[in-house]
């Protein structure tokens, strides 16, 4: 039960921080899937997931913290590709800044969750 409450609390903080960042930067949420970048985003996510899954199976026995590094790499790569595509397909919007600012939040929450659960 504590794990569920921790997860829900961190998600509430994350979405609250995203809302606050959008208000402070005066950025509206953009929909990437309505542009040609939507297909590129989907392909990028699939390629990143495939590469990350292959890497985790290769390094699972070598590193004790392979799962942690898997999630860090996965969220970092997803955040970077999302920010790049928002910058590319919405040049007048600053939504890519919010995507870039979310990366440290996601990785920080991941590290907090792993630390508190271990």
TrEMBL record:
Signal peptide: none annotated. Keywords: Membrane, Transmembrane, Transmembrane helix. The keyword Transmembrane helix applies. InterPro entries: DUF4181. It comes from the Bacteria. The keyword Methyltransferase does not apply. This is DUF4181 domain-containing protein. It comes from Planococcus massiliensis.
